[in-house]
Amino acid sequence: MRLTDHTDYSLRVLMYLNQINKNATLAEISRHLKISRNNLIKVSNQLSKLGYIVSNRGRNGGISLHPKTKKMSLKEIISNTEESFSIAECFSRQKSTCTFLHECKLKKSLSDALHSFLDSLDGTTLDSITPNSSVSLV
After folding, report:
1. Which tops the pLDDT comparison, 67 or 85?
2. pLDDT tens digit sequence for 69-115
3. CA angle 120, 122, 128 (to 5 degrees)
4. What is the pLDDT of residues 6-27, one digit of tens each?
5. How far apart are CA 66 and CA 82, in angstroms?
6. Could you tell me the pTM of the whole model?
7. What span, in angstroms and rounded, lies between the C-alpha atoms of 71 and 120?
8. Judging by beta carbons within 10 Å of its beta carbon (0-12, 13-18, 19+), is residue 73 exposed, middle or buried?
9. Which residues are within 8 A (CB) of 48 and not within 5 positions of it... i.e. 6 or more apart?
10. Element (H, E) at 14
């Protein structure tokens, strides 16, 4: 199982905002996390739509973490930011060409593994994985 770069960047942005506990510009985040501004625009748009961050316009604008996000589970965050959990062709909504599809037990095993992976993240919050603010990201 591999998460997309989008989900990886989303988690990093949320951790950074949680750590600094204030507004940050996309330029600042890009510099600290070494993520392109274009990717950050996409990530921040989705995180804002999900209500995980707050966008502030104007001279002192930027983005900040919504307080409720600190206590959210990684399972919830990843489930909402990951585009697809199609870990094999048979999981896809597209027509599968697998010849074993009708008699296959692999899909159930992979599905069980995926659910175990996500369930293992249910008890872990964003707050619990964020390094202390005393750690410098500069």
Report:
1. 67
2. 999 999 999 999 998 887 777 777 677 777 777 778 888 898 899 99
3. 100
4. 999 999 999 999 999 999 999 9
5. 20
6. 0.86
7. 16
8. middle
9. 54, 55, 63
10. helix 5-20
DSSP state of 24: B
Please name each of the domains of the chain with its CATH number: 5-129 (1.10.10.10)
Task: Give the 3-state secondary structure of residue 2.
Answer: coil
Residue type, 38: N
* Residue 89 to residue 66: CA distance in whole angstroms: 36
> Which residue in 72, 76, 68, 71 sits closest to 118, CA to CA?
76
> What CA–CA distance (Å, rounded) separates 14 from 33?
11
End-to-end CA distance of the chain: 31
- Residues 89, 90, 91, 96: is their CA dihedral positive or negative? positive
Q: Which residue has the tokens 């919504």?
A: 66
